[in-house]
Amino acid sequence: MNVAGALIAYLGAINLAGLIFMAIDKYKAKKQTFRIPEATLFTLAVFGGSIGSILGMLIFRHKIRKWYFKFGMPLILLIQLILVYLIYRSPMQIIWK
Questions:
Q1: Quick check: 43 and 78 in contact, CB under 8 A?
Q2: Which residues does 21 contact at the CB level (< 8 Å), separation at least 6?
Q3: 64-16-12-45 Cα dihedral, nearest 10 degrees
Q4: CA neighbor of 7 nearest in space, from 47, 54, 53, 52
Q5: Number of structural domains in the chain
Q6: Which domain range does residue 29 map to?
Q7: For the whole model, what pTM was predicted?
Q8: What is the rounded radius of gyration, in angstroms, for the C-alpha atoms of the chain?
């Protein structure tokens, strides 16, 4: 597997994890059982799962009233997109083999 394939696999897995964790936390909220810590949900987003976490928020209507999720998750995604753009435009050559 090359670097690009591994990166795509990682991003797919971490975004799926973000989506699943939002679903599980919503389920646990309805059942009033032990919840997933908010720090865990943000950690998944910071490590590349921001799209999955945002989709989980929208699909399951979970954490959408909390301002730090409402604005924090899109901000994390924006920062990640800016970093990808800066890496892409950097003068260093990245070998994707």
A1: no
A2: 36, 40, 41, 44, 53, 56
A3: 40
A4: 47
A5: 1
A6: 3-89
A7: 0.87
A8: 15
